[in-house]
Each structure stands twice: as C-alpha cells, then as structure tokens.
Amino acid sequence: MSKADSTKRQPVTGTGRFISGVVEGFYGRPWTMEQRTELFKREQKWGLNTYLYAPKDDYKHRMYWRDLYAAEEAEQLMGLISAAKQHDVEFVYAISPGLDITFSNPKEVAALKRKLDQVKEFGCRSFSLLFDDIETEMCPADKQAFSSFAHAQVAITNEVYKHLGEPEVFLFCPTDYCAVFCTPSVTQSSYLNTVGEKLLPGIDVLWTGPKVVSHKISVESIEEVSSVLKRAPVIWDNIHANDYDPQRLFLGPYKDRPTDLIPKLKGVLTNPNCEFYPNFVAIHTLATWCKAPAEGAPRDVEMGDEEQDPCYSPQKALNLALTDWLEEFMSTDQPGGRVVVTLIHGMSVLPGPCHPRLKKESSEEEPMQTDMGESPYVPGPGENPLYTAEPLTLDDLKLLSDLFYLPYEHGTTARTMLQELDWLKNQSQAAAAETDKVTAEWCSRAQQFDNMCEAVVQMFNRLSNAPNRSILYDLYNYICDIKSGVGLARAYVKTLGGHSQPSAQLLNDDPEPWGFRGGLSGEFQSQDIYICGILQMKLLLLLLLQNSKVTIVFFLLGSRGAFCELRQSNRRMLDFYSKLGSFKLVQMDGLPQDILVMATSL
Fold first, then answer.
1. Where are the domains of the chain?
2. Band of pLDDT at residue 550, cut at 50, 70 and 90
3. What is the DSSP string of 286-328?
C-alpha cells in the first residue's frame, strides 16, 4: 500500500457537534404528538440535542411516502417542529422510500423532492433518507441505469441532499446498516465501500454496530467501519428496542459502549421501547453517558464494572435515572397541570386544597358539581378504615429494572432468582433423602426465594397504586405477566418442599384460560417449536403451558434438558410427542398415577 493510500484509509473521527438523542424508529404504534413534546422537554433538561422522526408504521413516512401531508397533518407536524426548536432539539425528518421506489425514474425522484420540500416549508431544516429493512434486488429498469444497489441509493441521496441546499444535518441509513449484514465483511463489502466512496462528505451515515441489536460496540469496530465509510458514523442504537418481542421491555442502563467511542463517532441516537413512558431510563442513562467524558476527572473504577470505563458507571447512571423516575411516578396528570404527591409518614398526600373554594354564582342553572375543597371523609367508629396505598419506593424501581433489564442480560435480582430456582429444583430430592443439615439449607434457601417472590408481588401492588397512571398503563401488561410467572415459580418450589399439592393450574384437566398460553401462539407452542428456540429468560418457572389439556413443558436457561407432563388420557399429545421422537418416557416418583413425564435433551 502506498503512503497516499495509507493516509486515505485512516479512520475519520467525529468532528463538529455531537449528535445525541432519540430516534423514533420502531415498528408499532407511533408516539403521540403530546408524548413527543414531552420528549423534547426531557432532552433539553438532560442535555440531548436531536430527535429523528422515523416511525416505521406512520404510513406517510414509509408505505405511502409519496403522499403529501393533508392540512391537519401538516399543522401537527409544524407544531411538533416548532416545539422541538423551543426546546433546542434538532428535529430531523426521515423518509423511507426504499420499499417500492424506482431509482431511475425521474418522476419518483421528483416525488421525493416534493415531499421533502413540503416538510421544509413546515420549518424543518434537517433530513434523513432511510433504506433499511428492504429487499436488495433492483427492478429491471434500475439494473439498466445503475451498476449496483449502492450506486442507485447514493445517486438519489446525493441529488436530494443538494436539492435541499446541503443541510447541516443530513443522515443516510444504508441497507447494510450493521456488520452482520456486510458480505463478506465490513472492510470487503462492495456495498459499504461504494457508499464510502460516492456519498457526499456532508452526509452522515447511520450504523447499529456489529448486529441489529448490538450487545457491545467496541472502539475497534467503529474505527473499522469509519475507514470504509470515510466518515464517523452516527449510531442508531437498538439496545433498548423491544418491537421484535411484545413480551419484553428494557429498563436497564445504557451500557457496553465505552465512552472512548465518543470522539470516534458523529453521534448516538437511541431507538428505545415502543412504549413511551418506560423509556425514561433508556434516555436518561444515554444522556449521562454522553456527558461523562466532559464532566471532569475520571471516576474510580469499581470492582465488578464489566466495562472498566473510567468515565461512566452504568449502575450509578441507572440509580440517578431511577431516582428521577420515582418523582415522575409520584406525580399525577390532572387538568391544569401536574400535581406532585408528597409522602408524609408513608402516606400519599396531595398538596391542598387542590382547588380554592368556589363562590356560588347567582344563576338559574345549578353549577356542575366539582371538588369544592370540603374536608376529607373520616370513617366513624366501627366503619371500614380508608384504603391507604403504600408509596412506591426506589427499591421497587430497582427491582423493576432488574426484572426487565437488557436484551442480553438480566439484572442482579433476576439472575439470583433464576439461580436459586435452579438450585432448589436440582437439590430437592437430595434434601428430602439426606441429613437434617442439607434439608435445613434447602428450606432456608426456599424461604429466601419465597421472600424474593413476595417482593415482586409487593412491587406490583405499589406500582399499581402509583399516582402517575400514564406510566403504569405502559407497564401494566409486563408487570402482570411477571407477577403471574413468579406466582407459578413460587407454587412450584412449595410443591418441591412438600408444603402444598401441585398447583391446580399445573395439573387441572380443565384450567382457567389464564393457566395456559392462548390463541394461535399457544397452538404453535404446543407443536414443540418453543422448546429449543425461545430461550427467553422470563422470571418464572420458564414453563410453557401448551393447551387446555395441560401438556406442560419445563426448561431452565442453561440446562441441557426439558421435560413435559401430560395425562395418560391425553392420547393426542402423547401420540404427538412419541412420533416426534424428541421426548422419551421417564420415571419420576411422587406424581399422580395418571400423570406421565417425558423428557428430552436440548
């Protein structure tokens, strides 16, 4: 390699303003205008500066990208762009024409320009063209006009960029937007090399890292892709995205991205959970990460810090976020503003009176009855006391975060519960057959596990009573699910210890519908699909209830086997598992006579 070539291939580090903030880029119901305005307030407060508008299921963003916005839609977008400016947040409008655009047709290019010109008239000054998650095969007309898919995308992107006056912020999302998509590798990808060579230098490139949802993003990986793109990328980070699994939510901190990345990047945008309100932690901790190198002396690296990052502690960032989030939980949305609930001696108290006592106006019509500031009801002797909700605590939110942590790991409490459940299951027979000392240890650990389960139940109760209902409603399905799973695990451990009979939910021949996975998904599960494929570490017995005839499959993450229980009378499922060949009959003591157990290795 010549000296000139060597200089040419050096990684380009990030320069200028560091882009930081949020991309609304998930599949599913888009956020409301009110929620986005709330987001801008939070970004300004926490020091983030960018919002990328790219909701996949906004049909005029992607599916019907050619259609101009109607008057009412235009008014909403103008209000949103104005709100972003008021809070010093750069509003970046993204459009995704890649599903069906013909790159070589001048009318298509004109339609794209016309759409972006309309948004520019709304006051938007920053734009993005996205070509992610599309087919890579060009139509015959484009094959005649362009030598490759990359050349087609780059040509139209450069043309639109110049048409818009070369905006200061203009983002391009390639079809190969992560390392795993690059063939045969990042450095040898003809697609990425074309983008790097041909894309105008004022256009920044979005990149998700090694994978679509990257566990870790290293400095070395960014230097590699920067050398190919000839510019520092903007990370589109999916670490908190949950649109690929409706049963997952991520409330852990921004982590596994060293702060040494910051001078190597043009920016970082998090694409978080579909639910708006639970994203408090994801966005708050990203803001802490972005500010970490600029906030002075390196911190002391703590024992157990996986990243060994001298500037940023994920755990400390999480604690800061949860502390602030607790204040949000203790506020309530009311007409005319937010009312903060004060905790006095463990009781939730509204600042009062909430409304001044109103004077009755002389009118022929009786005024509508409202809260007139009367004294609160006080029960008399022998009457039921008023219900008083226990206030939510910081420990509750730490537990919540542990149970819904990150895609590649669970929080400390969740890991402990899973480990204890596995130990209790494996040691149950030994505890019953051996010495009092072994039995005492088993009983002690079973009680500790039960206490952890009870903490989850109490957390659920306090969350359910939190004044901020908007947050609760976004969390409700998830916390109901985990409470149910913990209840099953709790009952199972008590059964192992001989303290109760097997749960009717487990062995009932005609269970309630909540005792098994329902709908078509449940039917698919009964075909043994999930046994080897799901590996989804939900905090329950990791048990799949197959159908209304109660075929049950158990497996523990990290174990090498799975087993199922079914009744001898359930000939259909017995015949299915036998013919499948994956499960074999095994002998187990202590089960009812009509229960068969089958097992397989994973």
1. 19-292, 394-497, 520-599
2. very low
3. HHHHHHGGGSSSPPPPPTT-SS--SS--HHHHHHHHHHHHHHH
Count of CB atoms situated within 10 Å of the CB of 104: 19
Helices first, then strands: H and E counts in the chain: 18, 17
Q: Cα separations (Å) of 497 from 370, 429, 559, 562?
A: 56, 9, 21, 21
Describe the strand order of the beta sheet including 595-601 as a list of residue ranges.
543-545, 552-555, 561-567, 595-601, 584-586
446 backbone dihedrals φ, ψ, rounded to 5°: -65, -40
Nearest to 429 by CA among 415, 441, 439: 439
Tell me which of 3.40.50.150, 1.10.150.120, 3.20.20.80, 3.20.20.140 is the CATH number of domain 19-292.
3.20.20.80
**Listed residue (227, 244, 247, 279) closest to 39, CA to CA:** 279
- pLDDT band at 561, cuts 50/70/90? low
Please tell me which residue, 444 or 514, carries the higher pLDDT value. Answer: 444
CB 432 within 8 A of CB 498: yes
Report the pLDDT value the prediction gives residue 370, as an integer from 0 to 100: 60
Fold of the 394-497 domain: Methane Monooxygenase Hydroxylase; Chain G, domain 1 (1.20.58)
pLDDT at 452: 96
Catalytic site positions: 133
Q: Could you tell me which residues are beta bridge partners of residue 409? A: 406
- As a whole number, mean pLDDT of residues 139-168 equals 97
**Other beta carbons less than 10 A from residue 68's beta carbon:** 13
Give the pLDDT score at 183: 94
Q: Please give the average per-residue pLDDT across 477-497, as a whole number.
A: 87
